[in-house]
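Quick note —
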Amino acid sequence: MPHLSQHPNHLNDRPSRLTLFMRRQKRMLQPLAILLLLCGLIAGGAYILLSSSEDIPMIALRDKLGNLLPFHVSNISIHGNTLTSDDEILQAANIHKGDSILKISVEGVRKKIDTLPFIDHSVVERHLPGSIIITVIERSPYAVWQHDRHFMLIDRSGKIVADKGMTGKDAQAYMRLPLVVGNDANTAAADLIDTLANFPEIKDRVVAAIRIGERRWNLQLRDGTTIYLPEAEEQAALKRLTDFQNTIKLLDRPVSVIDMRLPDRLIIRQHSSLTFPVLKSVKLAYNG
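Predicted structure written out below.
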């Protein structure tokens, strides 16, 4: 019986079109997969480096990366401060040129800066390879509040602004800010100060605003004159007073009291020490 040799079927051994397609795709996907892996590693490393988290594992990772990568602080920029000096901010932040920028906790630095007297809040940014940017928003003192024989800086809302005594910029703030005196004068001051800003001729003469009975204000002028303002009608009273100043120069006369509590008139008292006739205790009708 003749022997039949077995020959391979070359048509059956050829890979299918699907197999060829998958092989091509695999060759194309391998570089893409490597690229995606590298991007993931870079993104993860950037997150660790730039993260402000205070978690112990995150701090440890940042420190390890900081030892591997030679990035150091070369520039520290500070913005937004007028009452707080750069030196005070740097001292609180405890950052120095040459420090490893990756080992700096921006959240920790921010918390330290926020404890400074005039700082409301701050933003600390780390820009690789070597820049730290600090932006502060200050609680600007709005007035000086005298209460129970103590002088305190307050902001516009009446909250006390922490100070460090009558030195440096704190002393400058005391000297240039309006003085308000009495119970609840701190919370009521903003409305009065805003109203006075509309009457510069009067505002420039005022040395103190005294809160009376938590209801109304007396204004103490530089020459010793006291102005009694009505309750909740400061704008109208100051308008009347400005009119009298324009017509009869009332604020330039040596009087001790100008009582404006009545809406249709004001009562004026002269200094008791004066021996020559000036404006006596009189009532001036107002038809303005």
